[in-house]
Amino acid sequence: MKIGIIGAGFTGLTAGLILQKKGHQITILEKESVPGGLAVGFRAPGWDWSLEKFYHHIFTTDHYIRRLGDEVGVKFDFRRPNTSSLIDEEILQIDSPATVLFFPKLSMIERLRMGMVIGYLKYLASWERLEKYTIADWLPKMMGRHAYRILWEPLLMAKFSQYANEISLAWFWARVKARSTSLGYPRGGFQHLADSTAAKIGNMGGQIFYNLAVSQILQANNQLIVHCQDGQTYYFDKVIFTLSNAALVKIAPQLPTDYKEKLLSYRGIGAISMVLEFKKPFFRNQVYWLNICNDNYPFLAAVEQTNMIDKTHYHNHHLLYIANYLVPTHRYFQMTDSELLQEYHPFLNKLHHGYQNNLLKCYVFKASYAQPIMPVNYSQRVLPHQTPLKNVYLANMQQVYPWDRGTNYAVELGEKVSVTLAGDK
Ligand SMILES: Cc1cc2nc3c(=O)[nH]c(=O)nc-3n(C[C@H](O)[C@H](O)[C@H](O)COP(=O)(O)OP(=O)(O)OC[C@H]3O[C@@H](n4cnc5c(N)ncnc54)[C@H](O)[C@@H]3O)c2cc1C
Question: Which residues form the signal peptide (predicted)?
Fold first, then answer.
């Protein structure tokens, strides 16, 4: 069968790998010049590993992507880096039961209560009973308002902005359930993993075309006709579409109106990532991940990559991400890199006074669709892979509920959509 896959992120790459192995003729069409999607990397002169434009790591429980790594010969290394929170301008480590037990901003009763709630969620086997509650309702009732307000509310607000109060407790359960204190990273970076997967698809006879933005999918005479922006046309028996729901509405005009309306009713949020390259470390106490729980800060986390991955891979420089999730209409999306740095500057200076003296370079990356919004009872809204347009299959991050978007779930999704497609006549 001739199968077209739109998008060479981890969903598209995994589906391509599996279906090519099954003997189908795979063609992946990708808008960018390299594979990897939201996990794509870049490499500055002198670096021997690439760095993701948006921070990335995996958890020990991320079996799907670890298996993909094994298959294409890319190893993951696991470490236990320091995760902390910034509360009232104080950096406090909070990444293990012991650090929760001694957490100074909460009373002993509050710490015990929080520990019990997290423990309960961690050991609860399923999420179905939880999905009718919002995190914003359930969590303060269970762990107490003060603990919620200090630690969790700022994170929820930062991650989901105006949608924070709508997010289903099942999503929170999934985050607690899947998280490990050890974090994994592929040797060479996620770009190396994407490149190795793409190379394996190529070695088996599959084709990947880059710099090709698909503009339309049409169905005629039992065939799918895929038009690209540069005027090229491809013909397939089946197509897997891995972009956002909104993109499917634009690209597949023959879809029925009610399905298009449904697709457009799903919401997502964008992300802006700033990467700062330094001569010296940014954090003095080896912090890898700093959650910002002070709501006056203009960003949600600061992540020092080189406190998890050895700086020798980046020309002995130190790399810091400044992370933000924002609605795509937010004014930061219109700012130049230096305007954004100016906006962040007073707050970076609070975290490390005089940081500018060591600053070598600033890179900014923006994605208008990065994080799906999953409100209560979302399981009833998860779309099947088959779309009403025969032989067109949808596989994107809106379908990995209750799990948080992630490369592991992209790999799982790629596996699932391949099984569905192969099973259909
Ligand atoms: C800020 C941030 C932090 C993250 N952190 C982590 C993390 O720590 N760990 C983790 O595992 N995951 C993380 N993720 C999530 C992870 O990157 C994604 O969930 C995953 O990569 C999604 O893969 P995908 O293939 O489904 O979609 P995508 O990666 O979005 O792939 C879609 C592909 O389609 C291509 N495309 C778009 N339009 C067209 C077109 N018209 N024609 C052809 N191709 C097109 C795109 O260029 C892209 O390559 C993070 C994401 C963000 C934004």
Answer: none
Same domain, 103 and 246: no
Percent of the chain at pLDDT above 70?
A: 100
CA distances to 83, 290, 291, 308 from 93, in Å:
6, 9, 10, 15
Residue 4: both structure tokens together: 């077209």
pLDDT at position 101 is 84
Q: Which atom of ligand 1 is closest in space to residue 405's alpha carbon? A: 19
Report, as an integer, the average pLDDT of 217-228: 96
Which pLDDT value is given to residue 95? 85
Q: How many CA atoms lie within 13 A of 283 on its CB side?
A: 28
Instruction: Sort strands 82-87 and 41-42 into parallel, antiparallel or unpaired.
Output: unpaired
Provide the β-strand partners of residue 160.
none
The whole-model pTM stands at 0.96
Q: 325 in a domain, yes or no?
A: no
**Same domain (yes/no): 253, 113:** no
- pLDDT for 321-337, tens place per residue? 999 999 999 999 999 99
Domain membership flag for residue 377: no
Q: Final residue of a domain: which of 154, 178, 202?
A: 178
The per-residue pLDDT for 424 is 78
**Residue type at position 185:** Y
Instruction: Determine the distance separating the centroid of ligand 1 and the alpha carbon of 37, expressed in angstroms.
Output: 4
DSSP assignments along 228-290, one per residue: ETTS-EEEESEEEE-S-HHHHHHH-TTS-HHHHHHHHT--EEEEEEEEEEESS-S-TT-EEEE
Determine if ligand 1 sits within 6 Å of the CB of residue 8.
yes
User: Using CA atoms, how far apart are residues 171 and 406, in angstroms rounded to an integer?
Assistant: 13
Considering the domain boundaries, does residue 197 fall inside one? yes
The answer to whether position 154 is within a domain reads: yes
Distance CA 294, CA 280 (A): 25
Q: Strand pairing partners for 41? A: 52
Range of the structural domain that residue 221 is part of: 2-38+190-265+383-423
pLDDT beyond 80 at 284: yes
Per-residue pLDDT at 288: 97
State the closest ligand 1 atom to the C-alpha of 273, by its place in the atom list counted from 1: 1
Residue with the nearest Cα to atom 12 of ligand 1? 406
Domain count along the chain:
2
